[in-house]
Amino acid sequence: MNTINVDLAVQRKLIAILRVIHESRAPIGARLIAYRMNGQGYTIGERAVRYHLRILDERGLTQRLGYDGRVITERGIDELNNALVGDRLGFIITKIERLMLDTTFDLKTNQGNVIINMSIINKNDFDETMEILKHATRNGYPFSPYIKLIEEGTVTSDIEIPEGKIGIATMCSITIDGILLNNGILVNPKYGGILKMEDKKPLCFENIIAYGGTTIDPMRIFISKKMTGVLDTVNTGSGKLLANVREIPRVALSKAKKVLSSIVKAKIGSIAEIGEPGKSVLNATIDAGKVGIVVYAGTNIMAAVSEMGIKVATYPISTTIDFNELEKLG
Which CATH class is domain 2-72? Predict the structure, then answer.
């Protein structure tokens, strides 16, 4: 199993440079970028800015316009949209904990707030996207079928749906953590990763990132690196799915199993594996006195859309909405 390490210091400088470029109404050069960043408290020279700009260019986040300087690309704006939320909230775990507390879904009434992921596609890709989503959620595969369509111009969780685009809200698996918490079960979201599947069964995590050590959601990293094989799993039973791991106290295991059973029945999410106390689960390390629970990520169905070559910008763990606003895929 590989662990992806994100250099947070470099990442923050890249985002700061992107922000300066985005806020400029005209192409901007390295010297002026360095000047403005120093005004924001960054100690960085023109040469270092040029180095970081090359990285941004290579990632397709900025574009050089000759001697005029750099402009931000549409992909760069997507990156900045996601990062700005993370910057304000600190590490992703901080945002997760806040949204868990905002989750009010009641398993007895099927009423209350749930956590969603937000994805943005071109309107021209809508029909094909819907067919892929329906295909991915049929035949008993472990993905929640609940979505909400959001029209252009709408702003949600600091994300604006641009003209010519459409937003698709999908069920976030962190909702499960919020429900467990509401039922008196202490829960610690620990990892996000790539889960290898064979014959429709989970084998092990191939890659994993700790929520407590990153400002960017691991699912977004894996999707952007094209590391998923959701459609392979749906079509053949073997592939690579997005999944996450949380820990609960071993004394809460019996109660948690009952709650998780109701969650699966309500189609809020699906459980890949429940571990044994103090033991690794699907080769993800678990602390002593704890039990690891692996859940399939809600972002899988939009990863499937991306796998078909459709351009998708996905912002996991976006916000909470009333469950009644979601509709079940037909």
Answer: mainly alpha
